[in-house]
Amino acid sequence: MPESDLTPEEIAELFLGDIEPWYESKRLGTGRMYTNVMTAGLLLTDIMWNAFPLEEKHYLTPSQVKGLSGDRIKAILARHDESRQFTSEGGRTSRRTMAHARELAQILNTSLGAGAYLDSAAEGQEEVRSLLQEWFVAQVRADFLDQQRIAADELDPNKPSRRAIAALLQAAQIRGGHAAGAVAQHLVGAKLSLRFPKEDIPNLSYSTADQQTDRPGDFRLGDTAFHVTMSPGDNLMSNRCRDNLQNNFRPLVLVPEDRVEAARQLADNAEIGDRVAVSSIEEFVGTNIEELATFTSQGIRSGLRALLELYNERVEAVEPDPSLRIEIPGNL
To answer: Which neighbouring-strand residues pair with 250?
Structure first.
């Protein structure tokens, strides 16, 4: 069989010339895209690794899409460096997903790229499949993951503000990955900016801040170095905080409420416990909101909204992942 004269990129473009119009035809008037359109694309491009042209026996059973699960979709996304939570079930039993899979299989089988794909060597076919799957991953990012925001069940201005901060951190932890660390960092940054509006509070992406450059901490005010972390460890106390002390900085470590005692024990183990301040992120940010609000319910409501609006501004300015933004509830 003669090999195709087309490159894998050119063959992928031929496929996408047929896939893109189909995909866009599924978009709602609001611009929203159903997740099962995306999962159908991720799965079928995965099945192409074992079978092509695609026959129904390769991807359907009488009642569902064969092999489609949340874990499989998660694994596909991970191969393309995407770790954010997408869908837990994958929509395998949805009749609509089955219909999408049938339509897409027909498009792939009859595409102008199909013949050139079949004429390609194994290495070329692998690259084509990867390019097609990467395209569907990009749609997942643009049409779902990047549209999501951190949403907490409980942001009640009539309760202590630390409860609202705790709820946001918990929601970020459920999101997984580095979300909780990024949310904690930007909440503290927003709090410092509100409390000290005349100070230049640095705003760096979480990945940049986490690299721990030559800065004394995540933030610095006066001679205090602030360290924000969801998981305090020996390195923070033995190296970062000790360096702070040797350079005449006062280290302040901010951790989740349930890690405060562990952080203090780590400081004691490093023999700097009496020179390192440890506080909870919830208390540090929440108490500031209440103080600025002069401890009134209306003031707290306005303060929480101002905090979250500034948080979102800071995230939008530096984070490549817009889904780290926080959904501001209507009661604020």
So the answer is: 224
Is the pTM higher than 0.85? Answer: no
Q: How many Å apart are CA 144 and CA 141, to the nearest integer?
A: 6
Strand-by-strand arrangement of the 277-280 sheet: 219-221, 224-228, 250-255, 277-280
Give the separation between CA 156 and CA 162, rounded to whole angstroms: 10
Give the residue extent of every domain in the chain.
8-147, 161-324
Query: Rg of the Cα trace of the chain?
Result: 25
Residue type, 309: E
Which residue type, as a one-letter code, is found at position 197?
Answer: P
Structure tokens at 62: 């009488």
The residues with which 94 forms a beta bridge, in sequence order, are none
CA separation for the pair 179, 159 (Å, rounded) = 25
| Sign, Cα dihedral of 311, 316, 322, 327 | positive
Rounded CA separation 222/207 (Å): 24
- What is the per-residue pLDDT across 55-110, written as a single tens digit (0 to 9) for each? 999 999 888 888 888 889 999 999 999 988 787 655 444 678 899 999 999 999 99
Cβ density class 165-201: b for 16+ within 10 Å, e for less: bbbbbebbbebeebbbbbbbbbbbbbbbbbeeeeeeb
251-292 pLDDT, tens digit per residue, is 999 999 999 999 999 999 999 999 999 999 999 999 888 888
Q: Is 298 helix (H, G, I), strand (E, B) or coil?
A: helix
Is the separation of the CB atoms in 245 and 216 below 8 Å? Answer: no
